[in-house]
Protein 1
Amino acid sequence: MTGRVPSLDIVSSRPSSGGDSLAATSSQVARAWESFATGEDIEQGVRPEILASWYRCRDQYEVDPTLHVAPDAPGYNDHRLDNDVIFAKLGGLGALAGREIEFDGGVVAVTDGAGRVLGSWGDPSARKRAESANMAPWSSWSEQCTGTNGMGTSFEISGPVTVTGPEHWCEGFHQWACAGISIRDVVTGLPVAAINISRWNTPMSERVPEWLTQAAASVEQEIYRRALSESRSVLTEFNAEAAQDSAAVMAIDRGGNVVAANHAAASLLRLTNDSPVVAGVIEPANRWQPDIPEFVEVVRWAISRAVERPHWSGYARLAVCPDENPIPVTLRPIVDANHVVGMFCAFGLQEGEHYENTAQSAAISLPRRVIGIRSERLVLLAPSEIRYAEADRNIVWLGTDRGRIQAATRGLDNVEKLLTPHGFRRVHRRFVANLRRVAELERGVKGELVLITDPRSHELVPVSRRHAPEIRRLFGL
C-alpha cells in the first residue's frame, strides 16, 4: 500500500520543554498573533507563509480568531466519483500511519479537496481531544472555515506545511502542532485531498514533512496513471471525431490543455504542422495551453455543466486569432465510464448553451494590500508600487519600486484578479502590467509591442499579438 513511504516517527528529537504549552514556548509568535488579530499590520516575527495565511484568514475569509471548534462541512458531495480510489489509497496510508503513532499522542487525518475530514486514526486519547475541537469526519478544516492549519493551509501552499502552536489563526488550536500536505490533480493542478498529522501540546519530529512528501508522491502516482488513461480515451475519441469532420477541431483535457488538434485547428491557432498536438500528446506535462483570453474559465464552466449532463454542449465567443474578431467555439464533453475526461472544441460552430462572463460583475474579496515574500519577511505592497507581475510556472514575481518580490498568492490568474481593479491588465500569457506605470511604448523588430515601465533600467514587458489590440485601444493608439 505505501510503496516507498518510510515509517512515520513523530517524536521530536529536541529536548523537552518541561511540559510547557506550545503557546508558552512560542511567545514571540503569540504576541504577534495578539497584535494581528486585533487589526494591526505586521511584517516580521512570523514565518512568511504563516503571515500570508493570517492575512487571508483575517482580511479575505474573515475567520473568527476566537474559534475553538471547527464548523461542520456542507452536506453536498463535491468530489469526483473517480477520486474514490484516491481516497481509498490515502485512507490506507492514514490507517497504517495511525497504527504507528498509536501511543505517541498523534492523530492522522485525511480530507477531500474542500478540506472536509473523511477519516482519522492514531492515539485514542489524542483523537478524543481532537474530536472535542471537531477534528473528526464531516467537519471542515479549509482555511476559509477554520483558519490557518495544516490541512487547510496545504491547499494554499505547494509542498508540506507545518503550523505550530499560536501560528494557528484560531485561538482554540494554539496548543496543537500539525503538519499537512495537499495531493493535487496533475491535470488541473487543483487539490484532490490532504493528509495531516497533529500532536497535542508537543512539537513533532522534523522528519514529518519528509514523510508527508513521500506519502503524497505515492498517492499522486495513482493520479498520474489515471491522467494517462484519460488522455488515451480523449485521443481515441478525437481520432474518431476528426476523421468525420474537416472543420477546425481539437481535444482538451479537464484543465484546458490541448491533447490533440487537426491540421485546420493547428493552422487557426498558428501552430506548425510538426507541433506535438497534431500527432496527439499523452504525457500531461507536454500538453499545450492556448493563449486565448478566458479560455480556461470557459473550460471550467463547460465541465461543470457537463458533469451531470453527458450530452450537453455549449459555446463561447472567443478571440482565438490575434487582431481578429471573436469567433464561436463549441465545447462538447468527452465521457469515459460516466466521467468527463475532456472536451471537444469545434471552432466556428455555435451550438448549445451560451457562455456569459459574469466575472467582472462578481464581488471579489480583496486584501488590504498586495502581499509579497522576501527573505524571511512579508512585504505589504500598495498596488501603485507594482509595475508588473510575471509568472514562473505557478510562482509569481512582482516588479516593484522595492525590487523584485515574490507574490504570496500563487498563480498569475489569481494575482490578476487582485490587481485588475487597480489598473492592471493581462498583456501576455506570462505578464500582467500596471498600465498606469507604463512610461514608454516600443515596437520590436517584427512589429510586436513592448511596454517600458521603468525607463531608467529600460525594464521591458512584452505584449503578445493577441493582447496588443486591446492595449493599443486602452492607450488610444
Note: The domain at 245-354 is CATH 3.30.450.20 (Beta-Lactamase).
Protein 2
Amino acid sequence: MAEPRKRVAILVSGRGSNMAALIDAAAEPDYPAEIVAVISNRPGAGALAVAARAGVPTSIIDHKAFASREAFDVALDAELSRIAPDVVCFAGFMRLLTPGFIDRWEGRMLNIHPALLPSFKGLDTHARALAAGVKLHGCTVHLVTAEMDAGPIIAQAAVPVLDGDDESSLAARVLAAEHLLYPRALAMWARGTARLEDGRVRFGPEPEDSGLLIWP
C-alpha cells in the first residue's frame, strides 16, 4: 500500500510563484505531498487568486489587524492547528516569527531563500551577490529555525552570474531555479529520504543526487 501523502500548508505574502510551483508538482499523482491550504498575511496577495483557481482552500490572517507580533503568531498557530499540516512551506512569506511559534512548529517548516546559504542571509540577496563579485549564486531550501536563514539545509540550486547581469536578470535566473528546487526538496522531505539528524539534514536510504543540486 502506498504511503499517505503528507499534508502541506503554504504561507505566502505576495504573488506566490513558488507556491504555484509546489501546487503544480502536487497535482502529479505520484507526488508524495498534497497542498491542503494557503494562508496569507496580506489580503491583497496575488497568491490567493492563484491558489483559489487551483482549488486550494485559502485563508487570510492580516498582520495589520493585530496589536503585536505575538498576537498575530497566536492566530496563525490556531489556523495551522485547525488545518493540521505535516509540513508548513514558506513561499515568499515576509514575516519574522516569534520564538514561541518557532518552537511549536520547528522541524516541520521549510523555507526557500534566494541565495546559496550561508552566504547572503536576509534581504537584497541579488544586489549583494553582484556587489560581492561572486561567480555562482542560487537558492537554498532549508528548515526554519529561530535564527533567520540559518536552519539546516535540505537542497540548493546554483546558477552562474554572467557578465552584464543586473539585479533583475540575476533574480529571474535564480527564480527559475527556485521553481525547480522547491518541489524536489519538499518531495524528499515528504518521502523521508531527507531527514534531520543531529542538527543536519541527512539522506537515504536511496540517494537523491538529482534533487540535491541543480546546475545551472
Note: The CA atoms of residues 138 and 158 lie 4 Å apart.
